[in-house]
Amino acid sequence: MSSTTLTDWLRARDDEALTEVLRVRPDLATPRPADTTVLATRAGTRASVARAAEGLDTFTLAVLDALLTAGADKQPVPLEGLLDVPPERLKEAADTLRTMILAWGEDDGISLVPAAREAGGLYPGGLGRSSPSLTDVDVSVLLAEIEDDERKVVTALAHGQPVGRTKDAAEILPLADARTPIQRLLARGLLLRVDAQTVELPREVGLAVRRERTGALTEPTLHTATNKQSTVDATAASETLEVLRHMEALIHMWSDDPATTLKSGGIGVRDVRRLTKALEISERQATLLVELAFGASLVAETDTVIPEWVPTNHADLWLAASPANRWATLATAWLDLPRLPGLGGLRDGKDKLLAPLSEDLRRPVAPLERLRVLTALTDLKPGTGIVSPDELAAVLAWRAPRRGGRLRDEIVRWTLTEASALGVVALGAVSGPGRALLDEGAAASAKRMAEAMPEPIDHFLVQADLTVVAPGVLEPHLAAQVGEVADVESAGSATVYRVSETSIRRALDVGRTAADLHELFRLRSRTPIPQSLTYLIDDVARRHGRLRGGAATSFLRCDDPALVAEVAAHPVATSLRLRRIAPTVLISPVPLLEILDELRAVGFTPAAEDVDGQVVDLRPTGRRVQTATRALRRPAGTRVADPEQLSDIVRSMRAGDRAAESRRSRPVSPSSGGANLAEVMALLKTAIQDGSKVWIGMVDGHGSAVQRVLIPVRLGGGVVEGHDPTGDDLHRLPVHRITSAALVDD
């Protein structure tokens, strides 16, 4: 039976194995470990072990628990017979533990890092205390005699925490007097009483129940359904058009009537319900919509006395983009969103309502959990989707039972709902654009979504009831024209618009003429134009604009019409856009201070006045800078480790191992004042002349203490150059970083 240490076992592994260790446990590589001793020490810390255990599946955790139960953290134990499962499954799980260096050694003697027991929590392995009364007792015989309700209790405690709270633990009754499952189990000795409200499942019972339910060590079945990928993509594109329409409506709505920020942060129920009523969506959909707008920097909170949520300048760029690029922006923002929109509208443990856009919805791990769900779907063949979200939640819970916390299963369901609403997932399968988003990025996914979206049409159908039916997605320019002259009445695969006196007047207000509107309907309608629509356009146009209004930023007035005429005739009037609306009044859209400065520069002497006609001083009191508030973007997912970088770390550790194992003479060290630097330089020069190896202790660029063995070949310019004894790589080490040096005895 092997009793080697973890450090020795790591040193015996090849470079590929160590590289794999750093890949599956990236926290061990930061900062760079100086040698395998440092790597082994880090691998055994409680926090690192707990982090690594979060990625283990149920079966591997069961093997880990079995090793803990056998005391593998104290002495090596054989793998054979550890669990009643096929030997190849045991070996596969053990290999996983060895790859993650949670365990080491051969199958005849496996050891665990001591922190594995601490990382298991208060009850390592999920097992309670041992019961003396069950020693040398066949517990399986006792379990065969219990009733179904009792079995449910022991099964729940055996596969979760071994303790539970219940009022039935007040006293232990004889079996004949016991009425509840807890009382009967206490009477049988299959439960231990901790106090008046707490019971504990003995270790012997927990192990026996687990042996009975070896099926729990097998991944649950995930039923799937297969559709054509084109069908999945078409369904996703349809959902995409819907969310884009809702987002556009949100931007326009908050442009006119922003949502008010609550004192505790976020937006209130009134604003959410106003949004649901206007867009005809549920409150959960509205929450997702506003969170997406925030994540994509389309809305932001104003820095005013009463903060409000208003669209940003990014919203205008988004509105001008193509539908596919709009979708890519939203989908990318959702993947990177460090928040859980599904929490919006729920209540916390203190019965506080969790408001959308508040800090209560912030969860930094949300992107990682979201990516985990989508990765499980991308592992399926294209076009293959899940049948039940609950089944996927069960599978993911089996694959990583220690991840996700109490919201683990809910996050899976929320992710699927949100991904379906965004077109990343459709019919339970990852869409083509969604797969491109995960694998290639936003640009590639936008191109794929553009291919999946239906071709825009260049016509519509005008009905006799003054409705306009668009039997598909209109061309962007045509959609804008129809949106000017008609209001959306219903949306879907076919959009229905309603033409009214108000909508026609709106089109005339933006500069359209009656002739423009007649031409629009004549050229674009595939049905005859009803006479009622023609009469309505002409009637509204005849009455439109008889009374006119305009906007003016500044005015100039003077009791002398001649002076006003002189100013209006001066060349400066053109640049200042002055217009005379009365013999003694000029108006301009240019700010008043600029007008006064220009007029004074050409010889006039104007003065500024307030609303009461009193002269005021308009000189600025100081510089003012306005900055736009925009949402903070967070990266999502885990960065893929660079293989070359990991290989370089392994080579560096190997060099550190050789330096630590080398026999060397008494080292010389430069003092803080540099008095002994000459000794170090002399030692290096001697090694260069003799071709000897030198052990060097130094501080690297990351601030870590490292050791190296070099064959120095050149010294000068504050740098020593040398070769690694095992290769031809040339290393350049700054002399000022050297803390000690010694000749190596071969």
TrEMBL record:
<feature type="region of interest" description="Disordered">
    <location>
        <begin position="654"/>
        <end position="673"/>
    </location>
</feature>
<keyword id="KW-0067">ATP-binding</keyword>
<feature type="compositionally biased region" description="Basic and acidic residues">
    <location>
        <begin position="654"/>
        <end position="664"/>
    </location>
</feature>
<keyword id="KW-0547">Nucleotide-binding</keyword>
<keyword id="KW-0347">Helicase</keyword>
<protein>
    <submittedName>
        <fullName>Helicase-associated domain-containing protein</fullName>
    </submittedName>
</protein>
<dbReference type="Pfam" id="PF13625">
    <property type="entry name" value="Helicase_C_3"/>
</dbReference>
<dbReference type="InterPro" id="IPR032830">
    <property type="entry name" value="XPB/Ssl2_N"/>
</dbReference>
<keyword id="KW-0378">Hydrolase</keyword>
<feature type="domain" description="Helicase XPB/Ssl2 N-terminal">
    <location>
        <begin position="460"/>
        <end position="582"/>
    </location>
</feature>
<dbReference type="GO" id="GO:0004386">
    <property type="term" value="F:helicase activity"/>
</dbReference>
